[in-house]
Amino acid sequence: MPGIDKLPIEETLEDSPQTRSLLGVFEEDAAAISSYIHQLYQAMCRIYDAQNELSAATHLTSKLLKEYEKQRFPLGGDDEVMSSTLQQFAKVIDELSSCHAVLSTQLADAMMFPITQFKERDLKEILTLKEVFQIASNDHDTAINRYSRLSKRRENEKVKYEVTEDVYTSKKKQHQTMMHYFCALNTLQYKKKIAMLEPLLGYMQAQISFFKMGSENLTEQLEEFLTNIGTSVQNVRREMDSEVETMQQTIEDLEVASDPLYLPDPDTTKFPVHRNLTRKAGYLNARNKTGLVSSSWDRQFYFTQGGNLMSQARGDVAGGLVMDIDNCSVMAVDCEDRRYCFQITSFDGKKSSILQAESKKDYEEWICTINNISKQIYLSENPEEIAARVNQSALEAVTPSPSFQQRHESMRPTIQSRPPTARTNSSGSLGSESAALSALSLDSLVAPDTPIQFDIISPVSEDQPGQAKASGQSGRRTNPFGESGGKKSETEDSILHQLFIVRFLGSMEVKSDESPDVVYETMRQILAARAIHNIFRMTESHLLVSCDCLKLIDPQTQVTRLRFPLPSVVLYATHQENKRLFGFVLRSSGGRVESQTTSVCYIFESNNEGEKICDSVGLAKQIAFHAELDRRTSEKQKEIEKVKEKQQKELSKQKQIEKDLEEQSRLIAASSRPSQSSGEGQFVVLSSSQSEDSDLGEDGKKKRESEA
């Protein structure tokens, strides 16, 4: 006979939708078997009833035939031939009646008893176990929901103990009931064959026994067939007994091994967190918004499939796509006073989902698994080995290497020297890269034991007055596209406006700002520190790149969190392998020591747009550089025009002086001509000159004297 389909008892603890779907198939099969067996039972009851009726009728016929001779007929009485013939028939029919009685007894024992026992005992046991399992499953769901609603801030040890004990008891009850239910369903696959074959075998053997009295040949013809059927039934029975024994042993082993897993939050010392996973499956609570401020939580089964996150509800045949988690970002969040919450954001930032794990172990494993998948490690041949190597490298990254060259020669190709204003491979600097930089030690780039800032803090709070004065807009609500009404924003006249979604990873003070290696080293130390201290939280912001500055804007309130003047951004670069990581160095003066210049490196993660952001910053610096050149040219042109205008005024003044001198000369010439009355003429001339002197005043006199 073909193999028997079985339910996997080992997967009862996980209780996945696939297992529930397979359980549904077995339950449908059990219902179909029950319906079919009921019909077959009714048919066999009719056979048995008919056989009993035939036996009774045959016996009644034989009795009537025996009483024929006692009858007194008015005509034809005392017919001895007829009476002897009927007596012979009565004897034969009486023997047949005895055979039918034996056949009825055999049908009751060999046909009706097995099918009645299967119908009344085995099928009712399946229905009873199903009801008990449904009750246990509902109790477990209720206990899990009550446990998920435990407050993280106001923990009551008594309530927590009661809820935890309730979860333990309900989960254990569900697991044990489910295992026994699976065992019964698996056993049913054997019993249904026995329940159908054994009655038929009994029926046929009873019929053969019945016909043996009249035909031995008929028995010989069916003997081999019935022998084979009897052998098969015995083999199935032996296989069933062996399988039942194996399942019982499996149930006992799983009960012992699964006892610690009944707790909703198992001890991580006994069950360590696996950080190298590239596949994960389990139940999570998903947050769904039902209004502006209201939300609901739905418990579903989530699993990863390649680079996709899938979900599947109970009863569904297959899972549905939640989001593409290639190049996504995942971080821990605080949400509605619930524990173990984390948020997944797609690579383009358009879709996000907030999920809640049932335990701290699942919480950390989900974050690590999604982080590994976002790096596309699952596409390699040995994903778990590569993930372990990456995580080990992150842990070892905090140990300083002997030299900068040895630390980076295996991570990225050698960087060629470039002009001071050029930028290669999405990195930029105002200074030139020296060829001897590869021989510098670690201390020449980042000072040892330099503190790392993982949260965004305004420069005003960091005692940077120069930066604070330059920002001027910190804490003010800003439209990132410069479309504010009334007073113009400082970036409204800027040619370039580009907005990017970024997540702040950290910042730290650096000792050098002349090479992209400073950015690479800062990235390494910040990522290593996050991996060691299990810091998954990241602040998401909008980075506005303009020709004047770089701004970090709160995406919800549109408040400017930080402002970086573009001239102070002296270096920017992306990671050589992970293009989502980028950073820049901000040089500022007037720190804690007025005469000291400090450099701080800021590291961000983008949605696979690190090179675009660096290109945008480079373009902004070029536009600002050309704008500065144009401004200086315009100022120089204005100065030239002012000089020309001044020269023109001087020339006009000189012409006016010459004109006045000609007029004066003409007056003097006219006064020296002989006239008929010289005295009168002199008087007239003197009078006119005196009147002119009086009109000019003291300043006019001095001017005329100077002109003369």
From TrEMBL:
**Which membrane topology describes this protein?**
Peripheral membrane protein
Q: Where is this region: Disordered?
A: 397-430, 457-490, 645-708
Q: Which CDD domains does UniProt cross-reference here? A: BAR-PH_APPL, BAR_APPL1, PTB_APPL
Subcellular location(s): the record lists:
Cell projection, Ruffle; Cytoplasmic vesicle, Phagosome; Early endosome membrane; Nucleus
Q: Where is the composition biased (Basic and acidic residues)?
A: 645-665, 698-708
Q: Please, one GO biological process term? A: positive regulation of biosynthetic process
Q: Cite a GO CC annotation.
A: nucleus
**InterPro entries, alphabetized:** AH/BAR_dom_sf, BAR_dom, DP13A/B, DP13A_BAR, PH-like_dom_sf, PH_domain, PH_DP13A/B, PTB/PI_dom
Major location (coarse): other
Q: Which residues form the PID domain?
A: 500-636
Per its UniProt record, what Gene3D superfamilies does this chain match? Arfaptin homology (AH) domain/BAR domain, Pleckstrin-homology domain (PH domain)/Phosphotyrosine-binding domain (PTB)
Name of the protein this chain belongs to: DCC-interacting protein 13-alpha
